[in-house]
Amino acid sequence: MAKEHVLNLNAQQKKTVLAAFLGWTLDAFDFFLLTFLLTDIATEFQTDVPAVSKALFLTLATRFIGAFFFGMLADKYGRKPILMLNIVSYSVIGALAAFSPNLGIFLALRALFGIAMGGEWGLGSSLAMESIPPSARGMVSGILQCGYPTGYLLAAVVYGLLYQQTIGGYTIGWRAMFLLSFVPALIVLFIRSHVPESPAFVEAQKTARPGLLETLQKHWGVALYAVVLMMFFNFFSHGTQDLYPTFLKKQHGFDPHTVSWITIVANIGAIVGGLAFGALSEKIGRVNAITLACLIALPSIPLWAYSTTPFMLAIGAFVMQVAVQGAWGVIPVHLNELSPGSVRATLPGFIYQAGNLAASYGGPYQAGIAERVGGSYGYALALFAGVVAVCIIVVIRFSPERRGQVMTVLG
């Protein structure tokens, strides 16, 4: 039923969903480019992978600032104009990393990139969820969250096709890869011309609304619970994705082409999972869909982390990301349904990114664990995936279920 509604979205609704999807896709593309380049950046700056992986930590740790800042602007001035500002910001800052003269400047730029990156998810998801029929939200939630693995897949394809290739006598290195971050700015032209403002936001301008602090005081319990939930969710996704290319290169010695195609297979699984579980959540509920996805992750761990051939690792990565992004595919709609309308551009994104902050040191921590046990990145990945999947299963069972509620920007 949900799928039928998505196919019957009007032209403006389809363009809104497309804009939100593309914004998150290219946001993720910019982020995941770094995960393929950690070893190369470490070599150039004469340091080790754990030191460079602090860029992952800083990006994740500062995202909550952007979620709060851009979300507040969007709740005041509208989802559409602030979404455009946000996309231009992360595009420009992402590209500036190409000119870093040393590791310190590079880390500072990635911290700024995290601020810009942090705003997009909340803005895009609130704009989309407020613009579509309630029965279409589950499927659209899956579509939106699939922007993340699609961005990862795109980064893998670009890495596999372009990295270390020679064009016109110039060999493409890690700096040239970051220049591709300028590409997302082109989405702004599409949003400006074809995407309308959220109908719920437009309607809400006719009525006085409570402020953020007043709303948080009233709903602090749900907000605090959701931050804890998102901490585990961010451990789940980043703990299974960010160091996987490094695991393939450093522990298995695979070349860029092999790393690229295994990562592509993993992200095809992520897209399948996001779409399937987003749609399934309309039938069995948000909480049950997330629980089922996490249960699937557990038996896939040995194949994903301890296989020895590229083919078997790819199968394991496919199943793992079906589970991880299957659970994540429910999150855009679940957080928007849990959030009061007057702060819907601020609160879901802020909750998401506050969870990111709590989980932000996961990458360096995983790398440190791996190095302490003789470079076994597989062990570090398996440990994180197993523990966090169980934690999500336990915590999600306490979540309110608000599937299908009417969304306004009041209250």
Description:
The protein has 411 residues and is an all-alpha fold. The chain has helices at 2-7, 11-44, 49-52, 54-77, 79-96, 103-129, 137-145, 147-162, 174-179, 187-194, 199-204, 212-218, 220-241, 244-251, 256-284, 286-306, 310-328, 331-338, 347-359, 362-372, 377-396; strands at 166-167, 170-171. A two-stranded antiparallel sheet has the order 1-2. The longest helix is centred in the first third of the chain and has 34 residues, at 11-44. The two termini are 29 Å apart. 59% of the residues are buried.
The fraction of residues in strands falls at under 5%
- Helical amount: over 70%
Spatial sequence of strands, sheet with the most strands: 1-2
User: What best-fitting shape do the alpha-carbon axes yield?
Assistant: globular
Mean pLDDT: 84
- Major sheet description: 2 strands, antiparallel
Number of helices: 21
For the secondary structure, the number of strands is: 2
Oligomeric grouping of the chains: single chain
Category from helices, strands and their pairing: mainly alpha
Report the end-to-end length measured between terminal Cα atoms. Answer: 29 Å
Radius of gyration: 20 Å
Order of helices and strands: HHHHHHHHEEHHHHHHHHHHHHH
Low-confidence stretches: 1-6, 406-411
Pfam families: MFS_1 (PF07690), Sugar_tr (PF00083)
Protein name: MFS transporter
Organism: Mesorhizobium newzealandense
InterPro entries: MFS (IPR011701), MFS_dom (IPR020846), MFS_sugar_transport-like (IPR005828), MFS_trans_sf (IPR036259), Sugar_transporter_CS (IPR005829)
